[in-house]
Amino acid sequence: MNGTTGTDEAVAGRGRVVVVTGAGTGIGRATAWAFAEQDPRARVVAVGRRAEPLVGTAERAAGRIVPLVADVTAPDGPAAVVRAALERFGRLDVLVNNAGIAPHATLGGYTPEGIGTLLATNLTAPVLLTQAALPALTDSRGVVVNVSTAVGLRGWPGNSVYAASKAAVDTLTRSWAVELAPRGIRVVAVAPGAIETPIADHAGIGPEQRAALRAWQLAHTPLGRIGEAAEVAWAVTQLAAPQASFVTGVVLPVDGGAVVG
């Protein structure tokens, strides 16, 4: 993290310190903004692989959102993220495991390399990052918020491995909630449905395929519209709030009714 020289004593012990992965765009960016705006004392470490989008995230709350370029799938990525947060702010209160990829492929189109990359980002990275953060989260009696997907609760033709990786995140959430409760750590998740984010662009699908995907999503969303990243971010901040201190192990759909429709 550029410009980091020891603990910022003016911040430590006052506002909560939040790490958000995948914070350059979409739900991650909206979540970083929501934490910074809801509590002026909070400090947010916005993590992502590209510097330019992270700078855009940080500009909205200068000084309260700190960009950190890091790859959570790299061997030293999780430890580097936690170390950077502790060196800058001296504590870690909330970890938001949001980074994810959603490459579209039918069953016949998957390759070992593609499956490995997807699982490394969507499943392995949250495990190793949460593991690296455990001592700090134990000290703060902190919160882990995982971002999964409502699709993990039903079938998604043409995107089965992505849906399976996120269903696994739901299982991690419930399992960690029980395992980490003696440490005073809460673990929760939000499961977004159809949300307006750049994730489809990053998946490399064309305009026609994206239009078909949106039509399918709308047909399976009772509220009849695409959600906004800020609506998911609101759910993340509410589940992580101190007032939710008796809530753990929950996976909250933010999906316009898609799961129950």
Number of strands: 9
Helix content: 40-55%
Low-confidence stretches: 1-13
**Structural class, please?**
alpha/beta
Count of helix runs: 8
Mean pLDDT: 90
Question: Which word captures the global form?
Answer: globular
Cα distance spanning the termini: 44 Å
Question: Radius of gyration in whole Å, from Cα?
Answer: 18 Å
Listing every helix as H and every strand as E from the N terminus to the C terminus, the arrangement reads EHEHEHEHEHEEHHEHE
Order of strands in the sheet with most strands: 3-2-1-4-5-6-9
Range of strand content: 15-25%
Largest sheet: 7 strands, parallel
Domain Ketoreductase: 16-198
Protein name: SDR family oxidoreductase
Organism: Kitasatospora purpeofusca
Describe it.
This protein has 261 residues and is of the alpha/beta class. The protein has helices spanning 26-38, 51-59, 77-89, 112-140, 160-180, 199-202, 207-219, 229-240; strands at residues 17-21, 43-48, 65-69, 94-97, 143-147, 186-192, 195-196, 227-228, 251-254. Strands 3-2-1-4-5-6-9 form a 7-stranded parallel β-sheet, sandwiched between helices. α4 runs parallel beside α5 (160-180). This is SDR family oxidoreductase.
Fold blueprint:
Blueprint lengths: L16 E5 L4 H13 L4 E6 L2 H9 L5 E5 L7 H13 L4 E4 L14 H29 L2 E5 L12 H21 L5 E7 L2 E2 L2 H4 L4 H13 L7 E2 H12 L10 E4 L7
Parallel strand pairs: 1-2, 1-4, 2-3, 4-5, 5-6, 6-9, 7-8
Helix pairs in contact: 1-8, 3-4, 4-5
